[in-house]
Write a structure and sequence with these properties.
It is a single chain. The protein has 116 residues and is an all-alpha fold. The chain is 92% helix and 0% strand. It is rod-shaped.
Length: 116
């Protein structure tokens, strides 16, 4: 009778263990699915944010390029004005020393200005 009671108890525990193992496997699978869904959701969210970041970075870089081009163009205009002023001062200095040759210098310096 004791062996029969122990055997019955063992079978009950064995059956309960199988049931709990099946429940645990289902819970484990559900948990893994939830983790995968959460990971996919975060990846989608990150992808959306990355695209916005990429576009914002492109806009910033294009704006920086435009500003730099404006600075370069302004510097070129300033350099041209400085060169014109330098040539005008040089012509004035030459004219001050040689008033009789005044008429030939503007075209000479104009041609030099074109070359440089």
């Amino acid at each position: 009778a004791v062996v029969s009671t122990q055997s019955t108890g063992f079978r009950k525990v064995q059956s309960l263990t199988r049931e709990k193992r099946v429940e645990f496997a289902k819970m484990k699978d559900n948990t893994i699915q939830k983790i995968e869904i959460l990971a996919a959701s975060r990846i989608n969210l990150l992808s959306a944010r990355l695209e916005e970041y990429h576009l914002a970075t492109q806009r910033y870089l294009q704006s920086s390029i435009n500003a730099l081009q404006e600075v370069v163009a302004a510097k070129e205009r300033l350099d041209a004005k400085i060169e014109e002023k330098r040539i005008a001062d040089l012509e004035a200095e030459i004219d001050a020393h040689n008033p009789s040759k005044k008429s030939c210098y503007p075209s000479l310096f104009h041609n030099l200005n074109i070359l440089f």
